[in-house]
Amino acid sequence: MSTPALRVVHESGPGPDLAAAETAAADLLTALGIPLDSESLRGTPGRMARAYAELFTPRPFDLTTFPNDEGYDELVLARGIPVRSVCEHHLLPFVGVAHVGYLPGERILGLSKLARIVEHFACRPQVQERLTKQVADWLEEQLEPRGVGVVIEAEHSCMTLRGVQAVGSSTVTSTLLGTLREDARSRQEFFALTGING
């Protein structure tokens, strides 16, 4: 008997109020001394509102899993999944890549869903540490694998464009669960395949 796909949607709540966001964006820009009376800036508050609404609204998807009929018990890893999110402290973007892997249990996951899960949790104001843990915890809960590993490497605009202006710096975070945390050889294999020195 097949297991029905789990429909994944963003937390329930009111959708974006684009009119209010546009007014607030106009107020912010004006307060920062940016005049909005030129042709090129007149529509900027509306564009800002729509851009942030898009950044904070993940697409729903079906979490498609399949029986692990072959008993596959080696690491499944998707490397270089694009990550884009917004730092919750400054509302500036951070971008990079995620490497997401798991040791299958009774079910395996449609591979594109690893990227969808990263996108799902990245579409909100975030900190990289929480994002990394949310992806790993969610996979462990929904898939019940023998182990999960998530590594995110990202460049944060709040570090490169302002403050310390550390251009070219990147931040690496990881979360390991189950066998990938407990077994040194499995952990080393995961880090070797991601290109991270564990």
UniProtKB/TrEMBL annotation:
InterPro entries: GTP-CH-I_C/QueF, GTP-CH-I_N, GTP_CycHdrlase_I, GTP_CycHdrlase_I_CS, GTP_CycHdrlase_I_dom
Domain GTP cyclohydrolase I: 22-193
Protein name: GTP cyclohydrolase 1
One matching Pfam family: GTP_cyclohydroI
Transmembrane segments: none
Domain of life: Bacteria
Positions of Zn(2+) binding: 87, 90, 158
NCBIfam families listed in its UniProt record: folE, PRK09347.1-2, PRK09347.1-3
Record-linked HAMAP family: FolE (MF_00223)
Chain segments annotated as coiled-coil in the UniProt record: none
Reaction catalysis annotation: GTP + H2O = 7,8-dihydroneopterin 3'-triphosphate + formate + H(+)
Subunit structure of this chain's protein: Homopolymer.
Family: Belongs to the GTP cyclohydrolase I family.
Pathway(s) this gene product operates in, as recorded in its UniProt entry: Cofactor biosynthesis; 7,8-dihydroneopterin triphosphate biosynthesis; 7,8-dihydroneopterin triphosphate from GTP: step 1/1
Enzyme class (EC, first level): hydrolase
Record GO terms (molecular function): GTP cyclohydrolase I activity
Keywords, sorted A to Z: GTP-binding, Hydrolase, Metal-binding, Nucleotide-binding, One-carbon metabolism, Zinc
Signal peptide: none
EC number: 3.5.4.16
